[in-house]
Amino acid sequence: MSQSSGRRGIAWAIIGGLVLIAGIVAIIVSAMLAQPAPTPTDTPTASNTPEPTASEQPDGTFVDPTAADQGWTPEPITTGADTYIRAALAAASTFDTTKSTREEWLDYLDTWFTPDTRFTSEADQLAAMTDSQTELRQGVVLPQEEWDSLAGENGRVVAVVTGDIADVPVTDDPSGDMSIGTADVTLTFTRSDGSGGETSYDEQVRVSVQVLCGAASVPTPDTDQQAGDCKVVRYFTEPLEP
């Protein structure tokens, strides 16, 4: 009887140990299942990041980024002649009559100019720059009468350079920092159609501009532009070819 009872006691002890181990395993498994799964972190990709518009570019890219809000072409801050020439040619025909007057637009274009360093005296340089600004007003941009006609129909014009820039040599320029660029420009006119809508049409022109991209260029005051950045010397009433 004592040996049978001993064997039964050992059996019950083993069974009890197994039950205890099973209970511990169940608790551990339950705790693991209760933990929340990690949440992946969304990482934006280049495909869903919008590109900045002209007026949203970082400070320093343009002399005045807010010029775009007036319907004008912002003047780029660059030492690259090709980039600057494209912007300068577009600027001479890009405006919005609902956002500015013709004189405000022309005053803005005046800020693109720098004196012609081929003249030795400062007085001659300033006189030549004034003559170039007058030439722009009288022989290059849209005349006052056509501006008034366009303004009567809430009109605007956007100019875009199409094709390559043709380089024309600049005479009597010992610095080698001046260049003349000629290119085809597409002008897109948009007018009110008189019925609450708008109508658009294109015109093609060929225009030349002379720029200075060198140490003698005079930056627009109180801006990030610096001496050496490109500036306009002169627009031409007729295109120049190589």
UniProtKB/TrEMBL annotation:
Transmembrane segments: 12-34
Keywords of the record: Membrane, Transmembrane, Transmembrane helix
Protein name: Uncharacterized protein
Segments of skewed composition (Low complexity): 37-50
Region entry Disordered, spans: 37-78
Organism: Microbacterium thalli
